[in-house]
Amino acid sequence: MAYPAPLEALVEAFQVLPGIGRRTAERLALHVLRDPSARALGLAIETAVKDTKRCTICRNVCEQEPCVICSDSKRDARRVLVVEEPAHVESVERAGVWEGRYHVLLGSFNPAEGTDARHLAVGGLIERLRSNVVQVDEVVLGMDPDKEGEATLLLVLEAIESAGLGVSVSRLSRGLPAGSGIEYLHRGVLEDAIEDRRAVRRKS
Ligand SMILES: [Zn+2]
Fold first, then answer.
1. N or C end of the chain, less CB within 10 A?
2. Class of the domain covering 5-51
């Protein structure tokens, strides 16, 4: 027997989420019907969507733009750490190992899975580096030490090269555990990776 239409709609809504298959979606939907406290989810989703935006400068998720990091004059605006996801900003901030600013690409480049380079906020980064509002001296490419991260890193590096920007570019030090996302690294490892970063392009 099929589920009533409203329940089926909820199951399908859960299935849209990454990593959630039909069985898990059914389990979650039935749990929501059973447990009143799980219903806060609906309001939380609505509020998060309504009350957050993308920072016009760094593209990170924020409540007010520019975000708190971009509007903090104590942060070194001449250094920009480029990361794939807002969760990576969160991890680096929690570790307290970066005093510069960020740029969030909102994804990684994975041509094999059909991710299009145009969906990443690379254009916004180039614009930002081109504009003379704040002179950026160094871009640190802080991508995940995996295949997608490497593809993304090369994409950003190429974009900077072809834009002919006079900025130095570095990448995180070698020796990061392969395949481990930035958000899972211990504070010390993250700190070393940033401290011992390697130049891949000198300032021209
Ligand atoms: Zn920002």
1. N
2. mainly alpha
